[in-house]
Design goal:
The complex is a heterodimer of chains A (264) and B (286). Helices cover 34% and strands 27% of the residues of chain A. Chain A is an alpha/beta fold and 264 residues long. Chain A has a domain of 179 residues: P-loop containing nucleotide triphosphate hydrolases (Rossmann fold, 3-Layer(aba) Sandwich). The longest helix of chain A is centred in the C-terminal third of the chain and has 18 residues. Chain B is elongated, with a radius of gyration of 22 Å. Helices cover 74% and strands 0% of the residues of chain B. Chain B is built from twelve helices and no strands. Classes of the chains: A alpha/beta (264), B mainly alpha (286).
Chain lengths: 264, 286
């Protein structure tokens, strides 16, 4: 972890029209920065604007106001062609592994898509080798290359999603509730995989979750969000040991414990 | 198992059709009808317009499977040739309407705004006018012929396809796999070709097969009324219409072509229905 900022958001706001001049403010004047090589977790309850913030950073949606800087370059005003180079450098892993894979494409084509868009692998054999490499990296069998998503389990689908996200060697991975649709044992496998890939590929990671026990496992720093604003940012250890904000304490107290054993 | 994975979507579809009884039977009947009408000269030695005034209004038998009509023409021969028109009507305007509707539906969903508004209001207008009434107006204006029947059917049918395609496209554009594609840097055209069109395909196929019987019935009805296909061209609807005055004396004259219409329409209908079941991802097994 270095002191160099990879991506930062400055006072970004996003609101949605509810009709009749009413607006729902999903993200309200939020600033945050993500350092190179760190895993920053964004936690908060459902509907607090975590996913909106992630999509704002990915530039999948446009902010109403505020700036997003990637390595010091303001990308919030860029569009189309000018934005494309930055698309390569940050990728997203989605929440629902079932709907994030096109049901009509084979695993081969799903993983190859970013490679095709960027014409990374000019000839077929090279493409094939790269896809097999990626399958190997996410611990999937090579024979699965010609399968359809419907033939895979939830955990396997999420591994395909991860393979697609790391295909272009991005610098930043945004995981939007990437393990919350999986059952607990699979969650652990995927989290370990993410941790390993992050180390091997030198990724920075924005990890969005509502599950504080998951966050404790993977994150270096934690941002707590509530109602479109960030109410606390702290190192994971500090946050769990001495939660500063009342809402953080509330969230921590809602982690289910076995017996009387409180979560340490 | 390994070989099964290599199959593409078309082959999978073919296999599923073989396993589905309704699809298999109706598919075979459609195939038979296509063969019979395409190779009609092999199955009959009469001419579809050849008159034989000495043998008018003959009952079935004597070398005439369904007898002869009021001008002594062989009814069986005329049914085979009339089926050609019905099949042409079944496929041509339906395919053109599907293509037009798909293109406009995708445009409406992709560009939104004014484009969307204009296309969808046009579709609304077309959908709010009863199809037969509209076809009659078109045919009175253009005059009855095969071409004007095709044109009027395209105009009637594109609206529904456009509407459905638009709503499915809107849903697809919101999906996470399109979002993933965009975040990988893909442009609109790439998303369209790789994600939107393949996922639209089942919907389009089902709409297409369900429009086929509607087209055949419309053509038959228009020809029956005397404003569709004009003699001396042969059409099943026209034959039924011309024979209705002999309905009580010589019912086979009207019932034979009407029965043929029914067989064609029902087979396409059952085939379309079965196809919808097969293509429904919810019912598909891994």
């Amino acid at each position: 972890m270095s002191e160099e900022i990879l991506i930062s958001a400055r006072n970004i706001t996003k609101s949605y029209s509810l009709g009749r001049k009413k607006r729902h403010i999903a993200v309200n004047d939020v600033s945050l920065e993500l350092y190179k090589g760190e895993t920053l977790a964004l936690v908060g309850e459902s509907g607090c604007g975590k996913s909106t913030l992630a999509r704002l950073l990915m530039r999948l949606i446009k902010a109403d106001s505020g700036r997003i800087c990637f390595e010091g370059t303001d990308i919030s005003a860029l569009s189309g062609r000018a934005l494309k180079p930055y698309r390569k450098r940050m990728q997203m892993i989605f929440q629902d592994p079932a709907s994030s894979l096109d049901p009509r494409l084979r695993i081969r084509d799903i993983i190859a898509e970013p490679l095709r868009v960027w014409r990374v692998c000019p000839d077929k054999t090279e493409m094939e080798r790269r896809i097999l490499d990626l399958l190997d990296m996410v611990e999937l069998k090579e024979s699965m290359i010609d399968w359809y998503p419907r033939e895979l389990s939830g955990g396997q689908k999420q591994r395909v999603g991860i393979a697609r996200a790391i295909a272009l060697d991005p610098e930043l991975i945004i995981c939007d509730e990437s393990v919350s649709a999986l059952d607990v044992s699979v969650q652990a496998q995927i989290l370990n995989l993410l941790k390993r890939l992050k180390k091997e590929l030198g990724l920075s990671c924005l990890f969005i979750s509502h599950d504080l026990s998951v966050v404790n496992f993977i994150a270096d720093r934690v941002c707590v969000m509530r109602g479109g604003v960030i109410c606390e940012t702290a190192d994971t250890e500090t946050l769990y040991a001495h939660p500063g904000h009342e809402y953080t304490r509330y969230l921590l107290s809602s982690i289910p414990a076995i017996g009387d054993d409180p979560v340490s | 198992m390994k070989a099964e994975r290599k199959r593409n979507t078309g082959q999978e579809l073919f296999r599923a059709c073989l396993h589905n009884k309704a699809a298999l039977i109706s598919g075979l009947i459609i195939l038979l009808i296509i063969l019979l009408s395409t190779f009609a000269p092999l199955f009959t030695h009469y001419d579809e317009t050849g008159q034989d005034l000495m043998n008018r209004l003959m009952p079935p038998g004597n070398g005439h499977l369904f007898g002869t009509d009021e001008l002594g023409r062989d009814v069986f021969t005329r049914i085979l040739y009339g089926t050609r028109v019905s099949l042409l009507i079944a496929l041509l305007p339906t395919a053109l309407a599907a293509a037009l509707g798909t293109a406009l539906g995708i445009c409406a969903a992709s560009f939104r705004g004014a484009t969307d508004f204009i296309i969808m209001r046009l579709a609304d207008i077309m959908l709010s006018i009863p199809g037969m009434l509209f076809a009659m107006v078109v045919l009175y204006t253009l005059g009855g012929s095969l071409a004007s029947v095709v044109i009027s059917l395209i105009l009637i049918e594109w609206g529904e396809t456009a509407r459905v395609v638009r709503s499915v496209t809107l849903k697809l554009r919101e999906s996470e796999f399109v979002e993933a594609s965009v975040s990988a840097g893909a442009g609109g055209l790439h998303v369209m070709i790789w994600h939107i069109l393949p996922n639209l395909l089942p919907t389009i196929i089902v709409l297409f097969t369900l429009n086929i019987p509607a087209s055949i019935l419309s053509e038959s009805a228009l020809s029956f009324l005397g404003i569709g296909i004009q003699p001396p061209q042969v059409s099943l609807g026209l034959m039924t219409g011309a024979s209705r005055q002999y309905l009580f004396q010589m019912p086979w004259l009207a019932l034979a072509p009407a029965g043929m219409i029914m067989v064609i329409v029902l087979s396409f209908h059952f085939f379309g229905d079965a196809l919808r079941d097969i293509l429904d991802p919810g019912r598909r097994t891994a």
